[in-house]
Amino acid sequence: MSTMSADAQNPVPRHRRRSKRRNVLLIVLALVLVGLLAGVVGVVYVGNLSRSFDSKSETISKAFPSETLRPVKPTQGPAAEAMNVLVLGSDSRGASLNLAEEGDPSDQRSDTMMWVQIPADRKNIYLMSIMRDTWVEIPGFGEAKIDAAMAYGGVPLVVQTLEGIFNNRIDHVAIVNFDGFKAITDALGGVEVDVPLDFTTLHGGITFKAGPQLLNGDQALDFVRERYAFPDGDYQRVKNQQIFFKAVLNKVLSPSTQTNPVKVMDLVDKVSPYVSVDSGLKSSTLGALALSLKSVRGSDVISFTLPTLGTGSSADGQSIVLRDDAAIAAISTALSEDTLGAYLKSAGLG
Q1: What is the H or E stretch that residue 2 is in?
Q2: pLDDT reported for residue 20
Q3: Which residues touch 20 (CB under 8 Å, ≥6 apart)?
Q4: Which helix (H) or strand (E) holds 41?
Q5: Which of 25, 119, 131, 134 lies 20 to 30 Å (CA to CA) from residue 236?
Q6: Which of 178, 157, 196, 164 is CA-nearest to residue 64?
Q7: Which residues are registered as beta bridge partners of 138?
Q8: CA distances from 107 to 94, 95, 104 (A)
Q9: Cβ–Cβ under 8 Å, residues 242 and 202
Q10: What is the pTM of this model?
Q11: Residues whose CB falls within 8 Å of the CB of residue 304, separated by 6 or more in sequence, listed in order
Q12: Dist CA 312 CA 21 (whole Å)
C-alpha cells in the first residue's frame, strides 16, 4: 500500500488543505491518557503526566458565550453529574484560530464536530458526530451549514448554536490538530482497523482493501480524511473516523499500554501540543474524570452520527444535510434525563 500523502496531489488552496489537519478523536484519547492510569501507577508519575499536558497544551481564551445566552446546568438528578464535551476539528493554531477562540469572525470552519457525552454513572462514553453541512439556525445569522458558525463568531458561537439546538449545556470545549493524530498513531506502532469497503483516495490515489489492515500515521490520515471516494461522501468518512477511533482506543486501553508508564508519557507528550482546551479542562479535571472512567473499555465507547433526513439544497442553491428535528428533540430529552444509552438502543443506533 502506498503511503504518499494526499496533500501532494491535492490542488486545493493551502488554507483549505490546512482545514483537513484537525480531527476530533485526539481529545478523547487525551481524556483517557492524562489520568486513566492514575490508579495503577505512582503519584510522582501522574504529577509529571499532568504537568506535561498543562504545559504543552494551549488554552482557549474564550470558549463560551455570555451566560445569559446559555441553558442552565441541572443542579440535581443524573444529568447534573453527566458531562458534555464539544470537540472540534479546525485549522492550525495560527492568527485565525486566535480570532476564533476570542469569538471574532475568522476564516475558520469546524471541519469536524463531535458532542461527547459522559453519563453520571461513568459506565460509557457516547460520541455523537455531527455532519458539518447540517442546515441549522445560527444565532444572529439565520440558517446556514453548522460548520459556518466558527467563521461567523468563533468558538463561542459554535457552543451557542449547539446548546440552542439541543437545549443542553456544554461543560468543556477542545480543539484538536490533525497532525497530533498522525503522531499518536505512529507512537502506538500503528493501529489495525477493519476497513469496511474497498476504496481509492481521489487525490492521493491510495488504495485500501476491505478487511483488517495495520495502518501507520500517514495511511491513517488518508483513511479518515477521504470522502470523495464514497457515494455518500461525509457519511462514510464519519463512519471511518469512528471505526479508526475505536481501534485506537482499544490499543490505548490495552494492558500493554496501561501498564507501561514510559509509553503513556510518550503518548501524552506527543498529543498535548496539538490540543487546545477551555480554561477549565486542565489536567486536574482530566485526571479526576479519567479515574472515574477507569473501568471503561473500548467496547463501552458508543459512537453514532446525529440522524439526518438525507441531503438537499438550500434556497440559495447550497448542497446541505437536512436536519432531523424529531431525532434532535429525542436526543435533547435523552441528554436532559441522562438516558442517552437507552435512547440509542431504542433507536437502533447503539
Answers
A1: none
A2: 33
A3: 7, 111, 178, 225
A4: none
A5: 119
A6: 157
A7: 142
A8: 11, 10, 10
A9: no
A10: 0.81
A11: 126, 127, 128, 129, 242, 344, 349, 350
A12: 27
Residues 270 and 180: beta-carbon distance below 8 Å: yes
- Cell numbers representing residue 57 in the block: 497544551
Q: Of 3-17, 54-68, 268-282, which has the strongest mean pLDDT? A: 54-68
**CA atoms within 13 Å, Cβ hemisphere of 73:** 11
Average pLDDT, whole number, for the chain?
A: 80
**Overall average pLDDT of the 326-336 stretch:** 97
Q: Which three cell numbers stand for residue 144?
A: 446556514
Extract the C-alpha cell encoding 330. Answer: 429525542
- Higher confidence at residue 228 or residue 259? 228
| Residue 107 identity | D
Q: At residue 272, what is the residue type? A: S
Q: Which amino acid is at 278?
A: D
Q: Is the pLDDT of residue 100 over 90?
A: no
138-180 residue pLDDT tens: 999 999 999 999 889 989 999 999 999 999 999 999 887 767 6
Q: Is the distance from CB of 107 to CB of 100 less than 8 angstroms?
A: no
d(CA 265, CA 45): 9
Lowest mean pLDDT, pick from 33-47, 103-117, 180-194: 33-47
Q: How far is CA 185 from CA 110, 220, 249, 255, in A?
A: 22, 8, 11, 17
Residue keyed to cell 445569522: 141
Strands 112-118 and 125-129: antiparallel
